Structures are given as C-alpha cells and as structure tokens.
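User: Good morning. I'm curious how 3-hydroxy-3-methylglutaryl-coenzyme A would be positioned relative to this chain. Could you predict the structure with it bound?
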Amino acid sequence: MKINWTGFSKKTPLERQKLISSLLTEEKQTLLRDNKQLALKTADQMAEHVLGTFSLPFSIAPDFLIDNKIYHVPMVTEEPSVVAAASFAAKLIKRSGGFTTTIHNRLMIGQVALYDLKDKKIAEQIISSHKEQLLSHANEAHPSILKRGGGARNIWTEEKEEFLIVYLSVDTQEAMGANMLNTMLEAIAPILEEITAGKSLMAILSNYATESLVTAECSVDLRFLSRNIEEAQQLAQKMELATHLAQVDTYRAATHNKGIFNGIDAVVLATGNDWRAIEAAGHSYATQGGLYRGLSNWFYDRKKQQVHGKLTLPMPIATKGGSIGLNPTVQLAHELLNSPSAKELASVIVSVGLAQNFAALKALIGTGIQEGHMKLQAKSLLLLVGATEKEATILLPRLLKEKHRNQETAQELLIDLRNQK
Ligand code: HMG
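Assistant: Good morning! Here's the predicted structure, ligand included:
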C-alpha cells in the first residue's frame, strides 16, 4: 500500500503508527502500540549484571529510494534533528533519482599474530604451502557456514616489525561473523605455531573490515540547494569546498564523519547490530593514506547542474545472529525494511550515512547548523526545564523567536507562563 507521507512529522506517534501499519504484521503493530520493551528475562540473557532495560526513541526516516527500491528506515537516536535531516535529504535525493550502491565484497578478516620466529621469510613460505590445509581446518571448526554457502576463503601473511601476521578472510553470509572468525582463528593458531615453530600472541577478528566495502552515490539537482540559480551554484561550490576541508583538516574530518555516523549508528542500533564494530571499521578506514580524512566526497557537476556525493565504507553488517533474533523491536526494524539481506542492509546504511552528510553540509554552508538543529532541540530544552507537553507546545514558538535559545531562556519562559496563570 502506498503511504502518503505529507505532514508525517506533525502527527502524533499513534497517528504515525496507524499510517505505517501496512508495513508491519499484526504482532509488530501491537508491539509498537503497547510500546513493549525488551523482556527483562531476555535482557538478562544478553548482558551481565542486568538491572533493567534502557529505552531510546525509535523513529522512521521514510522513502529512501535506493537501487530503484523504496526503504522506510528505522532509526534509534537520542539526538534531535538527526531523523529530520535524514528524512529531508531522502526526499530531495529521491526527487533527483535516488541512491545507487555498489557492494565491492563481503568478507570478514581475522588475524593470528605470530612472534618469536627464527626466520619470518621461511615461516611465510611454510604457511603458503599449507594454505589449503589451513583453510579446510578453519572450515572444520565452523562447518555450519559451509552449508550456508560461506566459509574460509583466503589466507595471507604480512611481516610487521617483530610479528608475522597471518590473515584469514571468511565469507560469513548473513552473520557479522565475529564468533565464527574467532573460532576459526583459534583453531588454526596451534597449527600455525606447530608448522612455523613460532608463538601465537593472539587470534582475533579485525574490525578494519576492508573486504566488506560498500559505496553509496547520489546526485542532487541544484534547484534543491536554492531556488535562486546563482545562489544554488555558489552553494554547490561550497559543498565541494566543504568536503575538501574534511580531507585536509583532521579537526573538521572528525566532525564531518560524526555527522555521517549520526545516521549510520541510528540504523545500526535499530537493526540490532554491533555499532562499536561499525564505528571502528569506519574510523580506521578514514585513516587510509596516513591522515584521518572525511569519508564522503561531494563534487559539483557543472554540466549536469547537480552535486554528486559518494561515500565508501566498510559495512560488515548482519541480519542474523547476535541479539538480532532476541530483541522484538529489532525484529520490527527488520520488518520495516522488508527483511533485507545483509548486503541490502549494508547498502541502506551507507546511503543513510550519505544522506545525513548531505543534510548537515547543506545546513552548514547555508543558514548554519543551529537554525534547523535548535528548532528541534528547542522542544527538548523546554521539557528539560520541566515544561509539560502542553506547556512546551505553547512555549515552542516563543522560544524559537528568542536570540538565545538555551536552557536559561527556556526556564524564564516557563516561569513567565506559569506566572500568567
Ligand atoms: P528546514 O528546511 O528548516 O525544515 O530543515 P522544514 O521545516 O522546511 O522541513 C523540510 C523537511 O525536513 C520536512 O519536509 C521533513 O522531511 C524534514 P515535510 O515533511 O515538512 O514535507 N523535517 C522533519 N522531519 C521530521 N521531524 C521534524 C522535521 N522538520 C523538518 N520535526 C532540518 C530542517 C532539520 C531538516 C535541516 O535544518 C537539517 O537538515 N539540518 C541538519 C541537522 C543535522 O545535521 N543534525 C544533526 C545534529 S548536528 C551534528 O551532530 C552533525 C554535524 O556537526 C555534522 C557536520 O558538521 O558535518 C552538523
């Protein structure tokens, strides 16, 4: 069923739930309606010393056109304006043709670090001649992945200072594969010690997932930067400059990338994935070439009168395993996305990162970030100083007119309102 998203942001959560109900099964609709949390018993199985559960807003950024398919993206974030920015960007990008993505590969990498080797060169030759045996030993340690079409794919070595590092790449199919990798690596470590007469310092997967790269690209027509063609052209040039700045200054690169991860983390969290792994992968990838750089690039295509954005990231995301099957809200998130495969989900997440980056840059080079961000932050400020929902609704337009939209002003406005009663 086609959903009319007009005015979606102005609706109440209950009205929004009704509008999107066709995307969910009855069971998941009830879950949303009753705002059911993760059961304490389940939570107690997921982590240790559990006292309770912890809630965050669960939102939707609708209508992302990615590889000619529409996705309504679940996002979990505590930060105002992130979901608004993603939704805004998705709308403009859809009208300009949507996102296209490329999955370069999808393998996880792990390593066994060997040391105390007499001759690293000879050890490398020995490992190379035992490659097939090592791969089949790795597969024997986790046979179920072979049935699913995955398994250990390659082994190679690199000398780094006193270490000879043995890398193993594995096709983990729909899983993120941390446990799978670690089991395989721990299984081959003793063999590596035996055949090289060296010692294994550790055997562990790497979050620098350079064999799980995904690229998202999109173009945005200049008319969406400004209705005034001259101003739009200036903004397009500034967009290009803004990404160049993130290439040459690490202070800016860190914030540029934080903006990208505003969107990425929100989807990673909603879909029950390990956001620390995704952050580690992204930030280590940003240091390629020795300098920490902005992960995205925007180019002003003067011929087509468009800005063209591109973001490449490691995205070792999963749709199975971990806590994905345990948390009902996570299952709901997968349902909203129409149960995508891991590759499809990776494409969605990198596209959201690019959308988020577009919205942030558009704001930064235009009116400035505070305008839009504070508009949405203002309500949180009012609630923070103790305003009721009703009071916050009355005070919001007043606070937005103030020069200093801070907690102090919010407090003053609330006192004034209550004194008027
Ligand atoms: P606007 O043009 O003032 O908003 O932008 P608008 O009221 O004209 O609405 C335009 C559209 O935005 C709406 O269309 C929605 O799609 C969306 P409509 O539905 O009305 O047809 N929108 C909303 N969606 C949901 N709830 C809302 C809402 N309001 C608008 N309440 C906007 C406002 C916030 C979108 C814009 O100013 C923006 O994108 N700003 C960037 C905000 C941002 O990036 N926030 C992240 C926090 S700041 C940060 O951490 C990152 C940063 O440091 C990264 C970096 O430096 O690169 C900036």
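Residues 342-365 form the longest helix (24 residues). The chain has three domains: 59-104+215-363, 108-205, 372-419.
Let me know if you'd like a different ligand tried.
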